[in-house]
Design a protein that fits this description.
With 339 residues, this protein is mainly alpha-helical. The chain contains 14 helices and two strands, in the order H-E-E-H-H-H-H-H-H-H-H-H-H-H-H-H. Helix 2 packs antiparallel against helix 3. The chain is globular, with a radius of gyration of 20 Å. It starts with a helix and ends in a 12-residue tail after the last helix.
Length: 339
């Protein structure tokens, strides 16, 4: 028993060090090659160049560790695991390319559909009509995470909460998937050390696209064969990114703007600009509210029908209240750096 505990701790320590080292190397490469995010007029707190490649470091290390586990005798990775991490790697390449040379929204969406479609076809063969629904779910979650990445540490936090919710719910995550989810959670913790305010590295689209995909893919895999209550509960894991997505779409379209066009309507920017919240205050509030939603799968698994219904109604009420409260906060309009 003691040997097993020591072996597990050693493995997780090595995993953590691998992610930290990869992030440090990625930061050096980004600085040396000038691959940095320059100050953005939409994000007024972004006042100096920040290196990219944080997300690339996380995804490449995740893939390497999954494959290394197979080489070191843990057995070959499950087919779904291998296809999933390779799809994440492909989306990472797409995101890094977009960070370097901005792609058109249409082209990005087309490539996302192709990668997600290939993933679903390989893990869910034979092809069924329900795959269309899953494809729409994956692409929606990917873009929700892509849009929410406008503040230091926010992407890491909102990617970690669903993973904690999945791991904390009994029998929701299959043993074959638990390892990759745990590794990714460790990677997010390591990246957060560098990405927390003030950020020393950005995940970029090279991080937000694959992370959104992985969260969506793990959620879909978790609810496969589960009841309706469990499936609905899993939606709570990504509630905050979906609320942000809906807020941005409505805000931009109400101004006659394309939903794909950048704007300062993000909830984190509204709170910082109009309510004078610090980034850490935004992160703390997001963590508390996100945790309330992330309890949904556990509530669905542990509680009886009436309590499930009560929790669901409370969650819907909280979501509506949050959306309306954030909508009433004007977005920043003066595009000047925050002193």
């Amino acid at each position: 028993m003691t040997f097993t505990v020591v072996a597990d701790l050693t493995r997780w320590l090595i995993t953590t060090l691998a992610f930290v080292l990869a992030t440090m190397i990625a930061r050096r490469i980004a600085v040396a090659t000038g691959f940095v995010a320059h100050p953005n007029v939409i994000v007024r707190t972004h006042r100096a160049p920040v290196p990219y490649l944080g997300g690339a470091a996380l995804v490449v290390t995740l893939v390497a560790l999954v494959l290394a586990g197979a080489l070191l005798g843990e057995g070959p990775p499950a087919r779904a695991t291998l296809v999933r991490v390779l799809a994440a790697l492909a989306l990472m390449v797409l995101g890094v390319w977009d960070d370097r040379r901005a792609l058109t929204p249409g082209l990005k969406m087309l490539v996302q559909l192709a990668i997600c479609g290939a993933y679903l076809a390989l893990v869910d063969a034979p092809i069924r009509p329900v795959l269309v629904v899953k494809l729409l779910v994956l692409v929606t979650v990917i873009n929700a995470y892509n849009l929410i990445d406008v503040m230091d540490g926010l992407l890491c936090l909102l990617s970690a909460l669903p993973l904690i919710g999945l791991l904390a719910t009994p029998d929701l995550v299959a043993p074959a998937m638990r390892g990759e989810v745990t590794i990714a959670l460790i990677g997010l913790a390591a990246l957060f050390v560098f990405n927390a305010p003030p950020a020393r590295i950005y995940a970029g689209d090279g991080g937000s696209l694959p992370l959104g995909f992985l969260v969506g893919a793990w959620c879909l895999a978790a609810v496969e064969g589960k009841g309706a209550a469990q499936a609905i509960g899993v939606v709570g894991l990504v509630a905050i990114p979906l609320l942000e997505l809906s807020l941005l779409v409505v805000a931009r379209m109400s101004q006659g703007l394309s939903p794909f066009r950048g704007s300062p309507d993000h909830f984190s920017l509204r709170l910082q600009d109009q309510r004078a919240w610090s980034k850490w205050q935004v992160l703390a509030a997001t963590m508390v509210v996100g945790a309330c939603f992330a309890l949904a799968p556990l509530a669905a698994a542990r509680w009886s029908g009436p309590w499930q219904a009560a929790y669901g109604m409370a969650a819907l009420g909280l979501a509506a209240l949050l959306w309306w409260s954030l909508w009433r906060i004007p977005p920043p309009r003066e595009r000047r750096p925050i002193p």
